[in-house]
Amino acid sequence: MRFYIFIFCLLTTPVVAGDADYYLRLAFEKNARLAVESRLADAAQNDASKESVFSANPEMSLGLMNVPANSFPALNRDTMSGVSFGISQKLALPWEAHYRKEASTWRAKNAQLSALLQKASLRYEVREKFNAVLFFTQRMKNLENAKKLIVATLRILSVPRKDARNTAGQILEARASLASAENDILENAYELEKAWLELSVLCGTTLEKNIADTTLLEWDNLSSLKISDTKDSKSTLLYKKVEQELRREQALVSLSKATLFPEVTLSASYLLRQKIPGSTMTDDMVSVAASMPIPLFYSAKNKYEIAAQKNRVEAAEQNLLEAERQISAQIKTEFARFNTLVKAAQNSTKAILPAHSSAHHSHLTNLSLSGSSAAEALIAYRMYLNADEEHLKQVRDAHSALHRLEYLAATGEEQ
Fold first, then answer.
1. Residues in CB range of 380: below 8 A, 6 or more apart
2. DSSP element (H, E) containing 156
3. Which of 36, 68, 79, 403 could bridge to 275 as Cys pair (CB 3.0-4.6 Å)?
């Protein structure tokens, strides 16, 4: 079944492309996992290149024949004595060599796909860690601003008033909110440091922990993200990886059949001073031979091996169908998640956050002018802080959905 999936025209140039590309370049150059996969792909390619009809090196032989023990090593005392030297070579039959080469080629292609998938996975992980760095950096700014608001509320509450509405309970409640904000700042600082360290590990080097304010503004501007379609899902690396497994199993079936007559051994030897039977004369002799194994135990062994390999082919075919369904479902899920998060974040920016901010400042003004209860101001502050936290999570998750879609739709061309 063929279907179409969503491909993104800005996948390789996200909103924070300037910084993200810098970290990606570092990761592609210094990440150890990627280097391992690249070396394994090269090794598999070399293994495929070495396959040929010559399944083994030729063998040289040299020996003494029929030498009497009492005259060893003299050869001129007995006409039965002689010197033999020869060469033998094992040659694979054409069809066996072809399928062996084909199986090895599929293994090499599979290793190359694994390297491309590792690169796509690394791209995804770097973008996600950088996304986390931006999230916790912006959250730190919001928490510090929230702390300033609570301090301003405490300052107003500490001013003596004749109506004595500013009770000790309200002051204690504001102090408790301040302590909670300080704990949130400490926890966020730990998460930010952790994100930087994990990003450094992916990049394979120590990073400077600097984020420009313009980068944070661009990260928060989800309207800049553009999505386009369409492309056949069978061009994605995830699908090709499973498809390659099927091709490999099919090649192994052919190889199992071909190995029923795996190779021919050709040998030739030259014998010096060999006695001719029935005659007193001696002469040099030449021996030439060819041998080939026969499938004598086919019914006991080979047919079951071939049957087992065919079962693996059928399993690989089912895996390919399942992979196609899963990729389609994951793409559609992430696409719907991305659209929902973008709309929710934009709604927060336009309506929810301004309303909570205005309500909080209004309560602060009333508290400062008329000495009204601080409870309303603190409640409005918590509502604003919670709404701002939810907005940041929506922005982070929207970028995460975009990165996930980039990984699912990777074809290797963007590598």
1. 356, 359, 360, 362, 363
2. helix 94-157
3. 79
In order of their start, the domains of the chain are 4-55+94-260+298-408 (1.20.1600.10)
Residue 37 structure tokens: 């996969």
Strand partners, 269: 86, 287
Q: Two tokens at 103?
A: 């199986």
Whether 174 contacts 378, CB under 8 Å: yes
Q: How many CB atoms lie within 10 A of CB 332?
A: 13
Which pair of structure tokens corresponds to residue 381?
């502050």
C-alpha distances out from residue 372 to 136, 316, 363, 411, Å: 35, 72, 8, 62
Long-range (24+ apart) CB contacts under 8 A made by 311-316 are: 312/249, 312/252, 313/246, 313/249, 313/250, 313/253, 316/242, 316/245, 316/246, 316/249, 316/250
Are 392 and 139 in contact by the 8 Å Cβ rule? The answer is yes
In 215-280 the beta strands, taken as DSSP E runs, fall at: 228-232, 263-275
Instruction: Judge residue 153's burial from the number of C-beta atoms within 10 Å of its C-beta, 0-12 exposed, 13-18 middle, 19 or more buried.
Output: buried
- Name the residue among 189, 168, 201 with its Cα closest to residue 33: 201
Q: How far apart are the C-alpha atoms of 347 and 137, rounded to whole Å?
A: 22
Q: For 326-372, what is each residue's pLDDT tens digit?
A: 888 888 888 889 888 888 888 887 877 777 777 766 766 666 555 55
Q: What angle do CA 193, 25, 415 make, to 5 degrees?
A: 125
- CB-facing half-sphere around the CA of 260: CA atoms within 13 A: 16
Query: Whole-model pTM?
Result: 0.73
Q: What are 18's two structure tokens?
A: 């300037």
Contact 243, 320 (CB under 8 A): yes
Residue pair 5/230 in contact (Cβ under 8 Å)? The answer is yes
Q: Angle 171-176-177 (CA atoms, 0-180°, nearest 5)?
A: 95
